[in-house]
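On clarity, I found the account of how folds are encoded harder to follow than it need be. What matters is that the chain and its backbone geometry are given together, residue for residue. For the editor and my fellow referees, an illustration may be useful. For illustration, here is how one protein appears when written out as sequence plus structure tokens:

___
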Amino acid sequence: MKKFFPVYVRVPLIFFIVFALMEYFIDSGDKPAFVKFPMVALFLFVFLFILIAIEITLSAVNRVMYQLLSPEEKAQKELEESLSFKESTWFKNLMHKLTKTEPIEKEADLLMDHDYDGIKELDNNLPPWWVYLFYICIIFGVIYVVRYDVLGADDQEMELKKELAQAKIDVAEYMKTAPDLMDEKTVVLLTDAPSLDEGKTIFTTNCAACHRADGGGQIGPNLTDDKWILGGGIKNLFHTITNGGRDGKGMIAWKGTLKPKEIQKVASYILSLRGSNPKDPKEAEGEVWVDDSAPKTDAAAAAPKDTTQVKK
């Protein structure tokens, strides 16, 4: 085999196989493993050094062993090395184990009595690889029938349906908590101080030019009163910031600049400005917005009682 895979082919081939396996099994992200982990590079260097050392040692041993051979053994070894690939002893032994073929000299012993227009039939054994493969197919068929037809295991169609159903459940769960998939239907009002502070920073950076830093309104409307042009509340405000204001004269859509989580924070901060009474605010625009989803109060219970009624 060595003459078919000389040392200058064998050493690089073994090295790059080990290198490829390490790159495949070691999770190094977007960088090669030997770059991200210096120990991998050190291991590869040591492995290559040992591989070359082994080849040098084996070559020296072979030379010494060859010198110890008798002239007849040297001639026999040279003869074997001069044979072609198919004529080599190991190849013949391998093919005989796989096929169990008989030498052509023994064909007379294999002849059968059948004769079809001069065509004679040989009683050759089936190749072992074919026999073993046939047995494996029988065993596989029995296991398959027992597993799916007797025990009722899930077939491919049922497995696909279950995986698709589970995928829908996983996507729904992810949608509940994924900030970047938030929309006006799932957004909720934030009231914690860190979120409002971040919302204030976003507002100051992107919105203060039109609404003033205090929200009192300039080019854009006043954001501190009770009136809204496109509806108040966190859901309406999230929709307005995301998709923009009125066509032709409203603000731009910020969905290409701000992430949904950032829009949620700035909308929550804007709603916290209600009633802050900034200096010289712009005149209120729009209509008073009432949250229809807020719980209704009992008007009868809230009406003042007449304390002048005569007690009986």
About this structure: Strands lie at 111-116, 119-122, 227-228, 287-288. The mean pLDDT is 83. The longest strand covers residues 111-116. Residues 38-68 form the longest helix (31 residues).
